[in-house]
Design brief:
The complex is a heterodimer.
Chain A: H1 2-8, H2 17-33, H3 37-54, H4 59-81, E1 82-85, E2 94-97, H5 102-125, H6 128-137, H7 142-171, H8 178-209, H9 226-246
Antiparallel strand pairs in A: 1-2
Helix pairs in contact in A: 2-3, 2-5, 2-9, 3-5, 4-5, 6-7, 7-8
Chain B: E1 4-14, E2 20-30, E3 34-38, H1 45-52, E4 60-65, E5 68-69, H2 74-83, E6 84-87, H3 100-110, H4 115-128, H5 144-156, E7 162-166, H6 174-189, E8 193-197, H7 201-207, E9 210-215, E10 218-223, H8 225-228, H9 232-238, H10 243-253, H11 268-283
Parallel strand pairs in B: 3-8, 3-9, 6-7, 7-8
Antiparallel strand pairs in B: 1-2, 1-4, 4-5, 9-10
Helix pairs in contact in B: 3-4, 3-5, 4-5
The chains are: A mainly alpha, B alpha/beta.
Chain lengths: 248, 285
């Protein structure tokens, strides 16, 4: 939901998604082109600074959105660095810190970090409907995009249904003790399954009523000065890639 | 009855669980009318509407459009659904796209219109329901009433000749109901036939020029609401009569006839006026 809020309320909301996509892509290229962990970290810093200061996303919100992927990144870096060894010691098992691989792990982690910031930039500045229309221009198969559109919309419908049902259950003391909670949860899940089925039927009817015969077609948004913003995005993105070539 | 634009002839329909939703139902909707469809819950109003748009196909009997039986082929349905716009009761089951403008464009895009025309229709229909300012907002951040208006815009953008609305007033506050009424009146004045399913007897009495009363999947009565809503069997099926009609009837019982100038009050405002006029008349000897 935080991502959602930013995507609809940031300084670059009205900038064409093509420009933002290009910049994000350049960020990822730069992340892979970075020769050292230090360079990759600089790229990550640039990308997050652009998101916070350029697109005007509050720093605190940025950190909160970034926290879950960073946690996974940390966990995977640790699991790469530390390995269990069953052969060496007499006691059976020992923790083994692979110091020799350290530079490789640092390289991989810092690159991933830069990639995460590049993707975050796109996710936090562009609403999903814009991202989908961008993917449509990239000739991604329609069926995938339709699925994305429907999933995204139903996500909110379902979360609202979950919220409403849980509120109604709580109002009748549905979550007071553990046993009662388990039973309420069971009720919630079975109720949701029925709702999903009914809603999909209703959506199908509604689509038919508006003359639909398969693919979901929508009007694309138009953006002012899109040439200019795409040029700016591409130039600054290329500068970022060039930076990785200059830095060691 | 003058020319009917849509009609059901002896239509029966059963859902899969075998409950008969329509049972040998025959009725007609007059071109250019303001038709109110009334009936208790489960009387078959929604099923009737799904038939008008060709979503459901009768198990027996037939649906006529302009006097011709519906053609259930792909191209026939395309034509029918461009002609009959259906607005569902629950806006969440009708809105697919996350953005308002995108969703409104869904129907016209399906009709295969060119982009310029679609863009114009989308802006026009957003304007008609007063949602232009919210065009770029995500659908899930809208209020219930706003979602409902987006649904109506989505159907208006297809420029139907008949607008069929399933309980459009349900869940709207009084101000929003008035706004919606203004929108519908404007559309009707422009020549659109409007069909509304409602539980609001007072609204049906004041607004409609044609009433259709359903009971257990059958037509119970049809005709002028000022007449049929007072019939005994209709009163018992709907659980009451419109307030305005009831007051006029009670006053008549004690010898006050508000209809003596050949004019029948249909809304609360008109009733107040008539009563005030009556009192003034009695005061002046």
């Amino acid at each position: 939901m935080l991502t959602e809020q930013s995507a609809y309320a940031n300084r670059w909301r009205r900038v064409t998604p093509v420009a933002k996509g290009c910049f994000s892509l350049c960020g990822m290229i730069a992340a892979f082109a970075a020769g050292s962990p230090r360079t990759a970290l600089i790229i990550a810093l640039i990308l997050s600074a652009v998101s916070v200061f350029g697109a005007g996303i509050p720093l605190l919100r940025y950190l909160r959105v970034a926290a879950p992927p960073l946690f996974f990144l940390l966990a995977s870096a640790l699991s790469l660095a530390i390995s269990l060894d069953f052969s060496t010691s007499a006691t059976g098992v020992s923790l083994h810190f692979s110091g020799s691989d350290f530079s490789r792990i640092a390289q991989a982690s810092s690159r991933s970090l830069a990639c995460v910031t590049a993707l975050l930039f796109l996710a936090l500045t562009t609403p999903l409907s814009d991202i989908i229309s961008l993917l449509r221009r990239c000739k991604i198969p329609e069926i995938l995009l339709d699925l994305m559109t429907l999933c995204y919309r139903t996500l909110f419908v379902l979360s609202e249904a979950v919220h409403d049902t849980m509120t109604a259950q709580s109002a009748r003391l549905g979550y007071t003790t553990l046993t009662v909670s388990m039973r309420s949860l069971g009720g919630l899940i079975s109720n949701l399954i029925v709702q999903v089925w009914q809603r999909s039927l209703a959506l199908h009817n509604a689509a038919q009523a508006r003359n639909n015969d398969g693919a979901l077609r929508f009007l694309e948004n138009s953006y002012a000065n899109s040439r200019l913003s795409i040029s700016i995005a591409v130039v600054s993105g290329c500068l970022m890639v060039a930076l990785t070539a200059i830095l060691p | 009855m003058t020319e009917s634009i849509l009609a059901l002839q002896n239509v029966s329909y059963r859902y899969q669980d075998d409950t008969p939703a329509l049972d040998n139902c025959s009725l007609a909707i007059r071109r250019g009318s303001r038709t109110a469809v009334l009936g208790a819950n489960g009387a078959g109003k929604t099923t009737l509407f799904l038939h008008l748009n060709g979503i459901l196909r009768p198990s027996a009997g037939q649906v006529l459009c302009g006097g011709i039986p519906l053609d259930y082929s792909r191209s026939g349905m395309r034509k029918l659904r461009s002609l009959v716009g259906l607005v569902f009761q629950n806006p969440d089951s009708q809105l697919f796209s996350a953005s308002v403008r995108e969703d409104v464009s869904f129907g016209p895009m399906n009709m295969g219109l060119d982009e310029k025309e679609v863009r114009k229709r989308v802006e026009d229909s957003l304007q008609a329901v007063g949602m232009t300012e919210s065009a770029d907002r995500p659908v899930h951040n809208l209020s219930y009433g706003q979602k409902k208006r987006v649904c109506i815009a989505g159907v208006l953008a297809m420029k139907p000749e008949i607008l069929v609305l399933d309980e459009p007033m349900a869940g709207l506050d009084a101000a929003m109901q008035d706004e919606l009424m203004t929108v519908l009146d404007r559309l009707h004045a422009a020549g659109m036939t409007i069909v509304i399913a409602t539980h609001d007897l007072d609204f049906a009495y004041g607004w409609a020029d044609e009433g259709i009363i359903m009971e257990s999947g059958r037509l119970l009565a049809d005709g002028s609401p000022t007449e049929i809503l007072l019939r005994e069997e209709v009163r018992s099926a709907l659980g009451g009569a419109p307030l305005v009609a009831e007051i006029i009837r009670r006053l008549l019982l004690i010898g006050i006839d508000l209809r003596d100038k050949g004019y029948l009050p249909r809304s609360k405002g008109e009733l107040l006026q008539a009563i005030t006029a009556q009192i003034k008349q009695e005061d002046t000897p």
